[in-house]
Amino acid sequence: MAERLHVGTRKGLFELARRNGVWDIVATHFLGDPVSAVLAEGDTVHAALDLGHFGAKLWRREGGGEWRELTAPAFPPKPEDAGDDPHPWSLGQIWVLEPGRVPGRLWAGTMPGGLFRSDDGGTSWSLNEPLWRMAERRQWMGVAGGEQPGINSVLIDPRNPADIRIGVSTAGVWASTDEGASWRIINRGMYNEYMPPEQREEPLVQDVHRLARCAAHPEIVWCQHHNGVFRSEDSGHNWREITAIRPSKFGFAVVAHPRDPDTAWFVPAIKDERRIPVDGKVVVARTRDAGKSFEVLRDGLPQRHAYDLVWRHALTIDASGERLAFGSTSGGLWISEDCGDSWIAPEARLPPVSVVRFADH
Amino acid sequence: MATVRFTSALQRFLAAPPTEVTAATVGEALAAVFEVRPALRGYVLDDQGALRRHVAIYIAGEAVRDRVKLSDPIGPNDEIYVFQALTGG
Question: Which domain CATH number covers A23?
Answer without folding.
Answer: 2.130.10.10
